[in-house]
């Protein structure tokens, strides 16, 4: 039994090493959230087993839990670089299948159609607003900046304020609000499913997304001209790396010891 107990320990250490390696490799990924490996004890016993004689049979990976703590905020100066200074996720629409994705990576740009898109081409979602920038509904729509205003003046720039109102500027000096950034929150964000490119999808574990405007209720404000960096702490990850390595070595040593004991028993002479 000790062979399999230690073998499970080695597999668990390998899983932990993989998670740590993934964290370290994404230490420069904007909007990335680190994960940690959590383990649970395994015991086996029947109703007739003396509770003082129940022997543990190792450990298993209980979960790989995401940590959504706020990462460092880096100033960039670009109007379409957005950081959420608090809770919430940017809501985007996938460019490939139209699914709804959530992200903390606020590096947005304009595409040829006037849409505000992420680096993956996913379209940022906005609430509708009136001429004064007040939200008028909760139906989400793609962020799209008209190339010309009603007077025929050309588009020259865009600004986003701390409550998420996106305003387009035109050559005649006019500024027109086109929508307000829609943030999403979840009752259990650790239940979100990673899909790559610092994007997540909602699941049954995370619950339904609740949408709101930045700076209201539980939703964080927006900081334009800034990006949220990865929340990976390299020093902490290196300590975890050493711990996982020692764990792996200890379990390997336990297997080696069990092998020697078995060999000794086999070689006994009567």
Question: How would you describe this protein?
Answer:
Residues 224-268 form the Flagellar basal-body/hook protein C-terminal domain. A flexible structure which links the flagellar filament to the drive apparatus in the basal body. Residues 3-33 form the Flagellar basal body rod protein N-terminal domain. The chain is 21% helix and 32% strand. It is an alpha+beta fold and 270 residues long. The protein folds into 2 domains: 2-69 and 232-266, no CATH class; 73-225, no CATH class. Strands 5, 6, 9, 10, 11, 12, 13, 14, 15, 16 and 17 form an 11-stranded antiparallel beta sheet that branches. A hairpin with a 4-residue loop joins strand 11 (155-160) and strand 12. Helix 1 packs antiparallel against helix 2 (234-266). The chain is elongated. The mean pLDDT is 92.
SSE arrangement:
Blueprint (H helix, E strand, L loop, with lengths): L1 H24 L9 E9 L12 E11 L6 E3 L6 E4 L3 E5 L6 E4 L5 E2 L5 E2 L5 E5 L13 E2 L12 E6 L4 E6 L4 E7 L1 E3 L7 E4 L2 E3 L8 E3 L8 E4 L1 E3 L5 H33 L4
Antiparallel strand pairs: 1-2, 3-19, 4-18, 5-6, 5-9, 5-14, 6-16, 7-8, 9-10, 9-13, 11-12, 12-13, 14-17, 15-16
Helix pairs in contact: 1-2
Keywords: Bacterial flagellum, Cell projection, Cilium, Flagellum, Plasmid
Family: Belongs to the flagella basal body rod proteins family.
Pfam family, one: Flg_bbr_C
């Amino acid at each position: 039994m000790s062979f399999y107990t230690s073998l499970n320990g080695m597999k668990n250490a390998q899983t932990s090493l993989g998670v740590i390696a993934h964290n370290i490799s994404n230490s420069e990924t904007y909007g990335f959230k680190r994960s940690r490996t959590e383990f649970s004890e395994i015991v086996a016993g029947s109703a007739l087993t003396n509770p003082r004689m129940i022997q543990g049979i190792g450990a298993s990976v209980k979960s790989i839990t995401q940590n959504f703590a706020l990462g460092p905020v880096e100033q960039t100066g670009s109007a379409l670089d957005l950081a959420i200074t608090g809770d919430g996720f940017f809501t985007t629409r996938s460019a490939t299948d139209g699914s709804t994705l959530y992200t903390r990576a606020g590096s947005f740009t304009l595409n040829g159609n006037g849409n505000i898109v992420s680096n993956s081409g996913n379209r940022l979602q906005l609430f509708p607003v009136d001429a004064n920038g007040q939200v008028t509904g909760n139906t989400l729509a793609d962020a799209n900046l008209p190339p010309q205003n009603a007077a025929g003046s050309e588009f020259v720039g865009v600004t986003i304020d701390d409550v998420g109102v996106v305003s387009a500027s035109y050559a005649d000096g006019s500024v027109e609000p086109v929508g307000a950034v829609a943030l999403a929150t979840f009752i259990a964000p650790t239940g979100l499913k990673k899909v790559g490119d610092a994007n997540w999808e909602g699941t049954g574990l995370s619950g339904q997304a609740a949408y709101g405007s930045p700076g209201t209720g539980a939703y964080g404000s927006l900081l334009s001209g800034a990006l949220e960096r990865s929340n990976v702490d390299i020093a902490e990850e290196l300590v975890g790396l050493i711990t996982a390595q020692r764990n792996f070595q200890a379990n390997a040593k336990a297997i080696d010891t069990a092998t020697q004991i078995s060999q000794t028993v086999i070689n006994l002479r009567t």
